[in-house]
Amino acid sequence: METVSKYNAKSARVLILIIGAGFVLLVGLAGVAMCTGRSNSLPTKFGEIDASAGIIYTSSFMDMAGKPQSLGQWQHKLLVINFWATWCGPCKEEMPIFTSLQKKYAAKGLQIVGIAADSPSNVVNFAQKIHVGYPLLPDEGGAIEFSKRLGNRLGLLPHTVIIRPGGEVISAHLGVVRQGEFEAIIIKNLPK
Amino acid sequence: MSLQNNDVANYTEKTGQIIRKNQRTRRVFAQLCILAMLGMTRSIFAAQSDLAIAPELLAAEEAFQVSAKMINANTIELHYIIANGYYMYRSRFKFAGQNDSTIFHKAIRPAGKVKHDATFGRVETYRKSVRVLLPLSHRVGRVVSGANGMAISSAAEDDIVSINATSQGCADAGVCYPPLRHQFILNARSRDRVNPVTQLAFSPSSALSPALNPLTPLGASTVKPATSISDLIRKTP
């Protein structure tokens, strides 16, 4: 019995070795994949959101009234952050989609916010002309920097990030969202 | 002896089982590894094919190339070369000069292609290229007090004109670039075309949000390292 348990122990060691080797191999492959992915990546390569997604709930932005709004207040919501600017044509094109979806899914826990790479006065003027059904947070200097930290390397607009309740970034999109696809992701991840 | 033999037999049998078990385990692991590798390769290729479909976006300095020259002693010409599939907004050009002995006048921007914007009405855009003229005049008779109290002219210094040019453009793919700021240093006596000495994505340091203050604790939230999704750009008609 002793001999057998010794061999069991040995086989366990071998097993651990194999698991270890397998793991190392996988990590290595993942590393290679990431490296080759990076080196081949075009400026358009998008969605390389790093662990700095942790900055989301600890960040706050001024609203149009100049009151600080912490993104952390929406941590139990399905949070959609849309980076935009009044000087960005494509951004304004997609805003009605966000307004209608905010209205449709507000009761089910959807919260859209628009962080603008723009001056408060431009954003206030814009909101007086166009009805926007979700908070607009102007931050001329900080919006693009924040967007870059969420994986938008070139700082392009519009940039839309979807964050599950609890903070997991599940989608990042550059350019105008496709309503059907976007709504499908929303429905699938609504908390209620 | 017989006991020992039994032991040996037992041992051999057990060893055989262990070896067989080991081989099975190893096979399973090998298969798992291969599966994992295949999965990974597939996802890499999937991501790359997504990229191949998506329009390749240029870096801002490739999409919007700019140079400057003095076409005469009183005019700076800025020449923007705009890549195919990209455009710049006429109203988004801003210029500022830095030179005490130079007066900068209003920039002359050619008419652009008019588009109607729901919120801002007329929007003019440029494609392919645009030349913007910056007229300037030199203050004459400017003197600088020398260390010894004598008035000396600093002509060489006055010839140097430094300007900051801010511009902004978008791609037809449906994305806009953040404003760009270029700094040029020109010599009023030279007619050479010069490249910008610096190119900065516009980011006024004073306007950094509290969110980006380095003192903000990072990684203090519950966020997991995120899944990366290659969600790419829609080609706008």
The number of helical elements of chain A comes to 5
| Portion in strands of chain B | 25-35%
Question: Largest interface, with Cβ-Cβ < 8 Å?
Answer: A-B, 85 and 74 residues
Terminal-residue CA separation of chain A = 57 Å
**Quaternary status:** heterodimer
Q: Which structural category do the helix and sheet elements of chain B fall into? A: alpha+beta
Q: So how many helices of chain B? A: 3
Topology summary:
The complex is a heterodimer of chains A (192) and B (237).
Chain A: H1 2-40, E1 60-62, E2 68-70, E3 78-84, H2 89-105, E4 110-116, H3 120-129, E5 136-138, H4 142-149, E6 159-163, E7 169-174, H5 179-189
Parallel strand pairs in A: 3-4, 4-5
Antiparallel strand pairs in A: 1-2, 3-6, 6-7
Chain B: H1 2-53, H2 60-63, E1 64-72, E2 75-82, E3 86-89, E4 94-98, E5 102-104, E6 113-117, E7 121-126, E8 129-138, E9 144-145, E10 151-152, H3 155-158, E11 160-167, E12 169-171, E13 175-176, E14 180-187, E15 198-201
Antiparallel strand pairs in B: 1-2, 2-8, 3-7, 3-12, 4-11, 5-8, 6-7, 9-10, 11-14, 12-13, 14-15
